[in-house]
Design brief:
single chain; mainly alpha; 65% helix; globular
């Protein structure tokens, strides 16, 4: 193993754990606000339950390093929908401290894209081989 594999592990764990915490909050607090936003966007409210795929299942797969590339893409798509549904008003704005108002969502999105491109690395259940890992 080399530093590249450890770097991929750090990326996977940081993205997976931080997104998973959002998913846990939705499990414990409910998804009614998400369902409302989805239906306001013109989609069936039941699509809101897909948040569990993007914020629970996909992060768990990224953390353990199994089907890592598709799971990371699901997280990236989830972040696109999060911005479309809840944060469009902040897209071109700066926050109080001078950073982009959506820097957290941007960091989640671009980290997910990087993981999808890099793969899981050797320190994973799926190993470095396979086109989905």
């Amino acid at each position: 193993m080399n530093s590249s594999d450890f770097g991929k592990l750090v990326l996977r764990l940081s993205l997976g754990i931080l997104i998973l915490l959002h998913g846990i909050a939705k499990i414990t607090g409910g998804v009614d606000p998400i369902l409302g936003m989805v239906s306001k966007f013109g989609l069936p409210a039941s699509f809101g339950y897909l948040v569990f795929v993007g914020e629970v299942l996909a992060p768990l797969l990224v953390i353990v390093g199994l089907w890592t590339r598709p799971a990371a893409l699901v997280i990236a798509i989830n972040m696109i929908f999060a911005v479309l549904l809840a944060h469009m008003g902040e897209l071109g704005k700066l926050g109080r401290t001078g950073g982009w108002a959506l820097e957290l969502q941007g960091m989640f999105f671009f980290t997910a894209v990087a993981i999808a491109l890099l793969g899981a690395g050797r320190i994973s259940l799926g190993g470095a081989g396979g086109r989905f890992n």
